[in-house]
Design goal:
The complex is a heterodimer of chains A (about 260) and B (about 260). Chain A has about 260 residues and is α/β, with parallel strands linked by helices. Chain A has a single domain (about 5-255), classed as Rossmann fold, CATH 3.40.50.720. Chain A is about 45% helix and about 15% strand. In chain A, helix 2 links the parallel strand 2 (about 40-45) and strand 3 (about 60-65). Chain B is of the alpha/beta class and about 260 residues long. Chain B has one domain: Rossmann fold. Chains A and B meet through helix 5, helix 8 and strand 9 of A and helix 5, helix 8 and strand 7 of B.
């Protein structure tokens, strides 16, 4: 198994329930567990998170749930302390959490509150998680941090400028962290999914017109599933990527290659 | 196994003999074989290529060697036919053959320019062109083209090498977009400084890289060391496997942080 012995904290991973639509975090939790990792599954949806953990355990994996509001500093400190008490180490952090209930605004119509929310839930969340895991990773001689950005951290979407600004912040913050902690063997990379059918995007992608627009823009001609992104995260979490840091892994079916 | 039943052709893979420093192609061949692939080694170094293929077979893996000068179209047609005749299909092509030419713009002769463009860019073009019909027949495939960090940012020297690796980078995206509908994925890999026969034993290569230059390079790597060939091969393995089935037209940078600065 590719992640044996590794302790991994993953955010926004509640939706990993078999037979239901999964989120990127939830699908990733399932794959990480199959590769032998011990998981701290975090989210703000305790019911779904606990069910996901129960299913992972039933399959012989190891997962425990913690509620974590990623934009809250105290929550991060508490969750990481709990993980350390329980496992004694943290090898990998997967920052999957995104903004809740995102509405799409044109730039002029973007409320300042939406800007702040996007920046907090995406960019600040990644900053806080990274800041508080680094001392623990340093102690065990290294680690891997994987930040989920988006293709819209690289190119602009037609709407939602706050979302793309926040995802762009994650992209470059990742490189800053990678450079600063490379000497401690802490690797930091970003993942840039294209159009993924998840619990969060389901409503938008159920609109036939929107769906067709997304499909037309994707050379591979299909939408991704959470699992397509999960395998990239496994690669970056494992020691197979030990020379990869400050890199961007684009998983978009060719959207940004055009 | 992550590549069970897949057939892969890897260029520049003669450098996989067990008792030598492995090149990226050679390291990839072993990793593919261990993950269940049937491996067609292709190179211009017939002696080393045959030796590596024999060592793979002796370990119980399926492997043959074919002579392939990547800038020769007839060689490509023969090599791909041999792969399909031997193993029935072609699923994976790794364009890994390469050479170095550390010259400034003024000191680059037009012969050096042509050689770099032929081996890296034209070699990748010809391989892709002739692999596509074979992959189409089996319903898809994965092509992995070795570019370099010098396909993203410039080296202080190696002018033609940089230009050729830049060509590989964007050619990969062109192929990716054109053949996505046929489920043929094309991605580029961008290694940073890697310990391979091309640069680990500079004395064997007259125009090779000096120990001082290697020291200078390591100073620029945030992770503070060079990569092993295996560290590049793992990235190639990920792109070759179905785990990356939604990845096409992407660049996988494996450089210890050099280009993040």
């Amino acid at each position: 198994m590719r992640l044996s012995g590794k302790v991994i904290l993953i955010t926004a991973a509640a939706h990993g329930i078999e037979g239901k639509l999964m989120g990127i975090g939830g699908a990733t939790a399932r794959v990480l567990a199959k590769e032998g990792a011990k998981l701290i599954v975090t989210d703000i949806n305790a019911d779904a998170g606990k069910q996901t953990c129960a299913e992972i355990r039933k399959e012989g994996g190891y997962a425990t749930y913690e509620t974590l509001d990623v934009s809250n500093k105290q929550d991060w400190i508490k969750t990481i302390n709990k993980a350390m008490t329980r496992f004694g180490r943290l090898d990998v952090l997967v920052n999957c959490a995104g903004a809740r209930g995102g509405q799409q605004y044109a730039l002029e119509d973007t409320p300042v509150e939406d800007w702040d929310r996007q920046m907090n839930d995406h960019a600040k969340a990644v900053f806080l998680g990274t800041k508080y895991v680094i001392p623990h990773m340093r102690k065990i001689g290294g680690g891997s941090i994987i930040n989920i950005s988006s293709i819209y951290g690289i190119v602009a979407p037609p709407t939602s400028p706050a979302y793309s600004a926040a995802k762009g912040a994650i992209r470059i913050f990742t490189k800053a962290a990678a450079i600063q902690y490379a000497a401690d063997k802490i690797r930091v990379n970003s993942v840039h999914p294209g159009y993924v059918h998840t619990t969060q995007t389901n409503k938008m992608m159920s609109d036939p017109e929107v769906r067709q627009w997304l499909l037309d823009r994707t050379p591979l001609g299909r939408l991704a599933k959470g699992e397509d992104i999960a395998h990239g995260i496994v690669y970056l979490a494992s020691d197979e990527s030990s020379f990869v840091t400050g890199s961007e892994l684009i998983i978009d079916g060719g959207v940004t290659a055009q | 196994m992550r590549l069970a039943n897949k057939v892969a052709l890897i260029t520049g893979s003669a450098n996989g003999a067990l008792d030598d420093v492995k090149g990226i192609g050679g390291a990839t061949a072993w990793m593919f074989a261990k993950e269940g692939a049937k491996v067609v080694l292709a190179d211009i170094n017939d002696e080393m290529g045959q030796k590596t293929a024999l060592q793979l077979r002796n370990m119980g893996y399926d492997s043959i060697y074919v002579h392939l000068n990547v800038s020769n179209e007839q060689n490509w047609i023969k090599a791909i036919n041999k792969a399909v005749l031997t193993y029935g299909k072609l699923d994976i092509l790794v364009n890994s053959a390469g050479t170095i030419a550390p010259f400034s713009v003024e000191d680059t002769t037009s012969e050096v320019w042509d050689e770099q463009m032929n081996v890296h860019a034209k070699g990748t073009f010809l391989g892709t062109k002739h692999a596509i019909p074979a992959m189409r027949k089996s319903g898809g495939g994965s092509i992995i083209n070795m570019s370099s960090i010098n396909g993203l940012v410039a080296a202080t020297t190696s002018t033609a090498y940089c230009a050729a690796k830049g060509a590989v980078r964007v050619f990969s995206k062109a192929s990716a977009v054109q053949y996505a509908k046929e489920n043929i994925r094309v991605n580029s890999v961008h290694p940073g400084y890697t310990k391979t026969p091309l640069n680990s034993s500079a004395s064997k290569i007259p125009a090779g890289i000096s120990p001082e230059e290697i020291k200078r390079r390591i100073m620029t790597v945030p992770l503070g060391r060079m990569a092993t060939s295996d560290e590049i091969a793992y990235g190639i393995l990920f792109l070759a496997s179905n785990e990356s089935s939604f990845i096409t037209g992407s660049e996988l940078v494996i450089d210890g942080g050099v280009t993040a600065q």
